[in-house]
Amino acid sequence: MSVQKIKKASGEPDEFEKSVANELLNLEMTSAELKAPLRNIYITAAKEVDCGSSKAIILYVPYKLLASVNKIQQKLVRELEKKFSGKHVLIIGQRTILGKSYNRNKKTSGPRPRSRTLTAVHEAILDDIVYPTEIVGKRTRVKTDGKRILKVYLDSKDQANVEGRVDTFAAVYGKLTNKQVSFYFQ
């Protein structure tokens, strides 16, 4: 029954993904306020990431469903974090990166869309990770040894809600993109 909440492009879902899909289905069945919005929502993958002292759960949703997930994200994340005993839950859109040598087929022509570049996808992942907090500024600090650190300034009005999750944000972004990031409030 939980298979309807996870749709993978290739292969079968593993046990962890099935358990997450099952919890989504349980939420849809039991929660009155989330029942209607969760009806058409499904995930494409789920990952558990080690963030030093704790673990985080990353849910990948199709990009087309991301806007509808964002409407209920705060309630959904709160309920899922209760179910998974304090692990942080992050929802990220499933995006495609096309390489520089991307060739279109004969029917359509033109360059690759800007939204499919590596840089655009990494920035979109960062936006998804910190949602619903807004990013108000970014700086790239290049150290003398050539190491790059991305400083991300978040909106200070959400500081009370987000401050405990900042380490998780940095660890997850580092795992997904291999980029070092630090978060500040402004």
Commentary on this structure:
With 186 residues, the protein is α/β, with parallel strands linked by helices. The protein contains six helices and six strands. The protein has helices spanning 15-30, 32-38, 66-83, 118-130, 159-162, 166-177; strands at residues 45-51, 54-62, 88-94, 135-142, 148-154, 180-185. α4 runs antiparallel to α6 (166-177). The model has no long low-confidence stretch (mean pLDDT 85).
Strand order of the largest sheet: 1-2-3
Percent of sequence in beta strands = 15-25%
Separation of the first and last Cα atoms: 45 Å
Overall radius of gyration? 18 Å
Total helical elements? 6
Structural category is alpha/beta
**Which H/E pattern describes the elements?**
HHEEHEHEEHHE
- Mean pLDDT, to the nearest integer, reads 85
Shape: globular
Tell me the helix content.
Answer: 25-40%
Largest sheet: 3 strands, mixed
β-strand number: 6
Low-confidence stretches: none
Which key phrases capture this entry?
three-stranded mixed beta sheet; globular
Topology (elements, then pairings):
Blueprint: H1 15-30, H2 32-38, E1 45-51, E2 54-62, H3 66-83, E3 88-94, H4 118-130, E4 135-142, E5 148-154, H5 159-162, H6 166-177, E6 180-185
Parallel strand pairs: 2-3, 5-6
Antiparallel strand pairs: 1-2, 4-5
Helix pairs in contact: 1-2, 4-6
Would you kindly provide a brief summary of this structure?
The protein is built from six helices and six strands.
